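Figure 6 in text form: structure in, sequence out.
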């Protein structure tokens, strides 16, 4: 009985490997042909990007701007600015600032919520009871 069970477990594991190995091989092949540089992030003309964003937000193209998740810009944008300014003040790279903004957008919709799952609070929905800050 134990030998039969062991054989079944072995077959199941080898079946999973048979499925996983081709996927890993394809993924590895795709990684070799990627266009990302090995040295990290590529240079971006942030001034040009900022100018393009400003042009769109100012309505220069005549189209209304709608950003999913940003349904109260007057209330949400100040929080985004605070997150970004804090990142700059702490010398956090731009990627880290984007991660912080994305996290706050996902966790609270860029709203300073006084409620949440269990005792989660704020933009990042952190839990004071678990040592993540205070409620003040």
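Output sequence:
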């Amino acid at each position: 009985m134990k030998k039969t069970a062991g054989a079944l477990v072995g077959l199941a594991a080898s079946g999973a490997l048979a499925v996983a190995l081709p996927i890993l091989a394809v993924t590895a092949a795709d990684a070799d042909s990627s266009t990302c540089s090995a040295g990290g992030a590529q240079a971006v003309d942030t001034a040009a990007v900022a100018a393009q964003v400003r042009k769109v937000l100012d309505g220069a193209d005549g189209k209304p701007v709608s950003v999913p998740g940003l349904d109260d810009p007057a209330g949400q944008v100040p929080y985004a600015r605070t997150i970004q300014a804090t990142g700059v003040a702490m010398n956090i790279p731009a990627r880290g600032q984007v991660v912080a903004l994305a996290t706050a957008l996902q966790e609270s919709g860029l709203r300073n919520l006084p409620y949440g799952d269990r005792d989660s609070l704020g933009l990042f929905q952190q839990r004071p009871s678990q040592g993540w800050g205070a409620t003040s």
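Caption detail: Residues 67-130 form one domain.
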